[in-house]
């Protein structure tokens, strides 16, 4: 009798622990575990994730109007409404299995529908949602990682940024925000030169690396050393972009630099950044 009772308990426990669609414990995008202060949830055997996971790590632009959410990427647009299963995808109505909802000031949306609509592949493995996005191609080379390097007074930092959406977004800024081509500055360095008015300091180096660890494209951002009288700096642009691969120089903007830094900060906070070397004292 004791053996029968034990067997029944064990069967019940196994049945409870292995439903048709096991509870999701984490999300991986391009093999990176996404950091989030809010865990995914299961509703009607569908995985619901905070909207931030979509907007920051899949590269979708998000726009709110009242209770309607618009997600856009490339030529694809999705419109969803809180507490409503009807969704408009590229102008056509569809029905979701689970409606978006608000919980603890977080908006939850169905990850599979949105990810697949934006061209990503989704599969589940032992409680993990694995999402694979399209890699950035430069000169027909798939980009594996973006290596970002910057120096400070007493050392430097090298970090690798993963995630195809981050690669796409950063490369787009470099491509679209560069201004007119200009001549190379007479003096430019990795460090501050406080003895040379009109010299430039390298804010950061960005290497788009292939799977075999070769640099496919390198951009460097330089800023004007400014602790000089204003009359000595007239005519010097504040920010320059160096396409180191082609050895061409362009005007660049402070707004573009801020946009790049915001993406890097987002990658870091979401788990897509790894420090390779840190010699900062």
UniProtKB/TrEMBL annotation:
InterPro entries: Cu_amine_oxidase-like_N, Mao_N_sf
Protein name: Copper amine oxidase-like N-terminal domain-containing protein
N-terminal signal peptide: 1-22
Gene3D superfamilies on file: Copper amine oxidase-like, N-terminal domain
Residue ranges annotated for the Copper amine oxidase-like N-terminal domain, each copy included: 29-132
UniProt lineage: Bacteria, Bacillati, Bacillota, Bacilli, Bacillales
One Pfam family, short name: Cu_amine_oxidN1
SUPFAM superfamilies, sorted: Copper amine oxidase, domain N
UniProt keyword annotations, A-Z: Signal
Top-level taxon of the source organism: Bacteria
């Amino acid at each position: 009798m004791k053996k029968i009772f034990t067997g029944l308990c064990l069967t019940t426990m196994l049945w409870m622990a292995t439903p048709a669609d096991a509870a999701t414990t984490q999300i991986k995008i391009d093999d990176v575990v996404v950091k989030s202060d809010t865990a995914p949830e299961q509703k009607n055997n569908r995985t619901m994730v905070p909207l931030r996971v979509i907007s920051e790590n899949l590269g979708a632009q998000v726009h709110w109007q009242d209770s309607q959410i618009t997600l856009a990427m490339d030529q694809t647009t999705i419109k969803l409404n809180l507490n409503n299963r009807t969704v408009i995808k590229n102008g056509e109505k569809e029905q979701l299995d689970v409606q978006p909802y608000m919980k603890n000031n977080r908006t939850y949306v169905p990850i599979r529908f949105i990810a697949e609509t934006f061209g990503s592949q989704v599969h589940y493995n032992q409680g993990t949602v694995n999402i694979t996005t399209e890699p950035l191609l430069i000169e027909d080379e798939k980009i594996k990682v973006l290596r970002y390097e910057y120096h400070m007074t007493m050392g430097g930092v090298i970090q690798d940024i993963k995630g195809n959406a981050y690669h796409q977004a950063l490369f787009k800024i470099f491509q679209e925000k560069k201004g007119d081509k200009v001549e190379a500055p007479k003096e430019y360095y990795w460090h501050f030169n406080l003895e040379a008015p009109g010299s430039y300091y390298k804010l950061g180096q960005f290497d788009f690396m292939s799977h075999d660890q070769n640099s496919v494209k390198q951009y460097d951002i330089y800023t004007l050393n400014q602790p000089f009288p204003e009359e000595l700096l007239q005519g010097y642009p504040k920010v320059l972009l160096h396409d180191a691969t082609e050895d061409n120089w362009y005007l660049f903007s402070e707004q573009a630099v801020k946009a790049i830094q915001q993406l890097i900060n987002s990658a870091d906070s979401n788990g897509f950044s790894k420090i390779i070397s840190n010699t900062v004292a």
